[in-house]
Each structure stands twice: as structure tokens, then as C-alpha cells.
């Protein structure tokens, strides 16, 4: 029966998923790669999950005005990147080499928006080939102070551009917190600071075990789950994995122990789903 379900067209799978609760949708996506892909590509499911992640649930006690206002806000943001699940647009982008092991060769699509790093630029393209909605930002405009660009991710539903950069650091006092990377919150449509965030950037800290010279490495793509951003990283030369859970609207972050990581979907996405569904320390 399971094999028959995943063989259905993606459009039909999405219609079935919309009948489920947000929590059930997440559980299905976590156990089936096909369902995860279908849920990611459906803007309607993304609306539902985004509302759930921000604390809005469909209950009898819910203030319908608040729910309608939040839904209208999401649709307005998504209209910046017009999306239609049934369209099959074709567009061409020349992608050159990227001198960055973390960013090189990765392409992303969410809710009709495609982005990748190409020729030292962040290329954002609307899948309906609307030139007015497409953007290209130089990587030099994404970092400040000679920092190394570690990761970039876009969330069309919140017009959100997340940028992670870092520098190596020397630890003298192992009891003290040290900055491991900086996270910036910008508008994907303009590259300006995001007005919904309490701060334009946030310094994420870590307490090393011993003195020495260290460098931080982002181990997987970032995950955005409502107001939360999850970053999976390690501190070289140590091999242990750590996560930072960031509330980008309130402007604060907290380190969390790394839970058991199943093999389906991306690591950071699973961590974000787990934190959103069960308990989030932020």
C-alpha cells in the first residue's frame, strides 16, 4: 500500500497531505523521501507548516481574525515570488565554479524560488521566469569584516535571506564563550536588513574544551522552521557535532545537544522538525 501511495502523482500526494494535521505532515515527511519532496514543493503545505511553526493551530478556540491575518501575510510574502504548483517553467542559468566547499554545486528550490551560488554571486530566480522578481547578489555584499561565507539559505514565505559567516579564533581561556559564526537576517527581495528581526545580525558563541586555535564548519544546509533557524556545525580540530537554535525574530541563540539523526532528508531539516514538534530551547 505504501508503494502504491508514493507512486501517485505529486499533485495528488499534496492534496492528500493537506487533509492531515501539520504534525502528521511532518512525521510523514520525516519517514518518506517522496512525501518530503512533495511537501517542500507545495506552497499550500508550506503555508500550513509555517503557520504551525509560528504557533497557529486550527482549533475551535483559535481567533479566526488572527489566523486569517497571518495567512494573508504569508500569501502576500509568497506573492513576491509568484508560485504555481502545476507550472513547468524552463529557464537557463550559467553556473561557474565556486571556490567554497560548503556552497559549491548546491542548488535549492522552495515554493517556486530557485537559488544557487554561481560566479561569486548568489543567484535567486523566480521559477515563472519573471525577471522583475529575480535577483543577483555579489558574495562580497553578503559578508563584512573579511569573514568567510559559510552558508546561505532563502525562505520565500518570509522574504528571508539567512547568511552565516565566520573567522578562525584562538582560545586562551577554555571557560569563556567565543564567537564561532555570525548570522545575518536580510530581505531576500532587497538584501536589506529584515524589519521583522530584533537585530540585523547575531553572534553565535561556543565554549571550547581546551585552549588552542579553532575554526568552525557548517556541516549541512541551514534549516528554517518558522521563527527558528537550525545550524549544524563542528569546531575543528574537534570532531563532535553541535547545533545552534536561533530565534531570528527575537534575536537570540542557544546551543543544543545533537540528538540521534536518522538518514532521511537533510540533517538540519530533521533537527528543525524535531525541535519544532517536540521542544525547542529557544
TrEMBL record:
Domain of life: Eukaryota
A Pfam family this chain is assigned to: F-box-like
Keyword set includes tRNA-binding: no
Keyword annotations: Signal
Keyword match Signal: yes
F-box domain mapped to chain residues: 8-48
Signal peptide per UniProt: 1-28
Annotated SUPFAM superfamilies: F-box domain
Name of the protein: F-box domain-containing protein
Biological classification of the source: Eukaryota, Fungi, Dikarya, Basidiomycota, Agaricomycotina
Amino acid at each position: 500500500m505504501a508503494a502504491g501511495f508514493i507512486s501517485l502523482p505529486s499533485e495528488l500526494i499534496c492534496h492528500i497531505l493537506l487533509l492531515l494535521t501539520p504534525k502528521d505532515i511532518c512525521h510523514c515527511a520525516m519517514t518518506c523521501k517522496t512525501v518530503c519532496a512533495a511537501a517542500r514543493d507545495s506552497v499550500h503545505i508550506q503555508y500550513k507548516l509555517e503557520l504551525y511553526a509560528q504557533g497557529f493551530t486550527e482549533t475551535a478556540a483559535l481567533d479566526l481574525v488572527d489566523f486569517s491575518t497571518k495567512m494573508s501575510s504569508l500569501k502576500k510574502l509568497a506573492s513576491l515570488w509568484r508560485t504555481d504548483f502545476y507550472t513547468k517553467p524552463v529557464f537557463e542559468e550559467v553556473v561557474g565554479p565556486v571556490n567554497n566547499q560548503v556552497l559549491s554545486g548546491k542548488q535549492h528550490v522552495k515554493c517556486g524560488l530557485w537559488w544557487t551560488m554561481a560566479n561569486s554571486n548568489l543567484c535567486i530566480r523566480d521559477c515563472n521566469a519573471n525577471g522583475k522578481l529575480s535577483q543577483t547578489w555579489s558574495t562580497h555584499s553578503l559578508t563584512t569584516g573579511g569573514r568567510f561565507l559559510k552558508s546561505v539559505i532563502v525562505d520565500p514565505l518570509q522574504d528571508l535571506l539567512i547568511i552565516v559567516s565566520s573567522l578562525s579564533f584562538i582560545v586562551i581561556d577554555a571557560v569563556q564563550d567565543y564567537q564561532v559564526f555570525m548570522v545575518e537576517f536580510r530581505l531576500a527581495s532587497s538584501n536589506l536588513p529584515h524589519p521583522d528581526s530584533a537585530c540585523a545580525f547575531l553572534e553565535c558563541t561556543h565554549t571550547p574544551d581546551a585552549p588552542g586555535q579553532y575554526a568552525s564548519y557548517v556541516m549541512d544546509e541551514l534549516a528554517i522552521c518558522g521563527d527558528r533557524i537550525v545550524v549544524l556545525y563542528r569546531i575543528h580540530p574537534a570532531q563532535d557535532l553541535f547545533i545552534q537554535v536561533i530565534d531570528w525574530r527575537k534575536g537570540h541563540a542557544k546551543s543544543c545537544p545533537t540528538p540521534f539523526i536518522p538518514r532521511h532528508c537533510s540533517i538540519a531539516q530533521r533537527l528543525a522538525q524535531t525541535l519544532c514538534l517536540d521542544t525547542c530551547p529557544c
